[in-house]
Amino acid sequence: MNRLLAMLLAVVAVGGVTAAALGVEYRQARAQVAAAQQALLQAQDEGQALRQQLDEAMAQAQALAEEQARAIWEQQEQERLQKEAEEAARQAATPRGPASIDLGYWMDKYSDVVGYIYNPGTAISYPIVYGDTDFYLHHDLDGREDINGSIILASENHSDFSDGNSILYGHNMKAGNMFASLQYYKSHDFYLNHPCMYLYTPGQTYRVDLFAGFPTPADGEVYFTGLEQEKIDRFKAQSTFTSTVNPTGNILTLSTCSYEHENWRYVVLGELVPIS
Description:
Elements (H helix, E strand, L loop, with lengths): L1 H14 L3 H75 L9 H7 L3 E6 L6 E6 L2 H4 L14 E3 L11 E5 L18 H6 L2 E5 L4 E13 L11 H9 L13 E8 L5 E11 L2
Parallel strand pairs: 2-3, 4-7
Antiparallel strand pairs: 1-2, 1-5, 3-4, 5-6, 6-8, 7-8
């Protein structure tokens, strides 16, 4: 300020400016400087307020994003738990064969055993052999002659039940054992109480969802190891019971003697549904 005053006095001395005019200009300059300083302070205050507003907005946006992320996670977790509950309920409602059947025991004891067939509530609960069909029709697992024979997988089939149609043979015994109870599927009421069987194999356990049963000649077309859809539909149409099962996978056919005509059989067909 002293320097400014000295400069003004020098101008006065040179140009003859009056002291009064000089004082006016000096005050105006000071006012302009003060105004500039005030504007700078106001700008700084406004900048700080704007920065604070921006920080608050960012904090609110972050809080909202976290809340939305938490809501999405909770929704996904709820859906996951719901799916797990539904799957557990479905598994609980799925019929399963008894865990007490030890296929390994039978296979270790008898080299020709390849599976086990079980029908809840009936006499059908037998190991399945694969080998000489004619021999096992009249012999038990130990090779002893027995009018009951054994339950046999057709020699035309693969032993792992991988064919489109795997065929089991068993006698219709008057005592009710072996495959005698198959004839009861001629009644729809019996089917309603026994809609499935279970097949145990070394690599897989299956639920056998039954879909047709009917009398047929011993050389009928049901005894092929592959069945076209047209035949399956026809078998369902002529079935002695009505089923809502529409098979899309491999089929198991169980065959036993029937006496509608000479050398006829009664067969029951089911779809193999893996369950474990």
